[in-house]
Amino acid sequence: MVCLPTLGKLRCMPRYPLVTLATVAATSGQAATLNPGRNQYKPMPHGKPAFRYSLPTSRVPMKMRSGLGPGNAHPATVDETAGDGHMFAHTGRTPLQTRESLMSMPTEIRADFDTVEIVDTDRIDWIASPAGGVDRKPLDRIGGEVARATSLVRYAPGSDFPTHVHSGGEEFLVVEGIFSDEHGDFSPGTYVRNPVGTSHAPSSKDGCVILVKLWQFQGGDTAPVTIDTMSADWQSSGQGVECLPLHRFGEEEVSMLRLTEGGSHQIPGEAGGTELYVMSGETEANGAPVPQSGWARFPAGEAVTLSAPGAATLYLKTGHLKGPISGPATGAGS
Questions:
Q1: Which of 6, 50, 116, 278 lies 20 to 30 Å from 180, alpha-carbon distance?
Q2: What is the mean pLDDT of the chain?
Q3: Distance separating alpha carbons of residues 146 and 162, to the nearest angstrom
Q4: Is 146 domain-assigned?
């Protein structure tokens, strides 16, 4: 049950699949019952986290609907930057909006980098992009027509995306299927970094899903990277833990991590923020479950302990969330 304040009282209702966003406060004693691993949560003063639940619009009181503004943009209502630099929106109930209507659309998704975010991406709807057969699930975003963005992108069999230049760099991990461009074919588990100024024309013959990060390269980070994590040599990093370093620049580190039952991996608060995506199995991050295909982000200054009830493999990035985080400058390329 989810309890929402209406006219000074609490109104309780069953939980529903996600369509729109409401914010519900819960006491710390309720936190374990409400399962923060399947609902995004945000630390609040005095140990009272605020859990974000997703409910059908018709079930959200009108006063609460009016509060769904840019600061609370929901993944089921806003797409990341489109291929031509425009943002598109989809509610699951209405068709894609026209470009003329985009001016009033939110341009931020999970853009408060001082909060903890845990997302079950299987509960987010795919959103069509302007390129036929290419759909997206935005995870975080800052920007206008061009954005700093993290997304899952799905290519239908035989689909492609127009040639484009990476003005802010592109980092991706193949989650499912075979991703292709003029540089080759990339199988599941392949990690790629395309630095600022590179370009390609992506496609997929049989369909694929990739985790993509745009406009997140530091100045001077110009090394292209392509690593097949399925065939690479992993390193033992303690009992029940294996690690595969993928990239390091300054304080930023990217790696793949394998955990087995009983294994634990510690990330100190000084690491400068933590972001992860679960490729297989289920992970626990500071005690909160993150399911397969789940994505989580912890702010700089927060220590993170990762463990797994069984075997799990995850993408892990640390040290990239220090200092103010903003989108591309106005007028920047795609």
A1: 278
A2: 75
A3: 16
A4: no
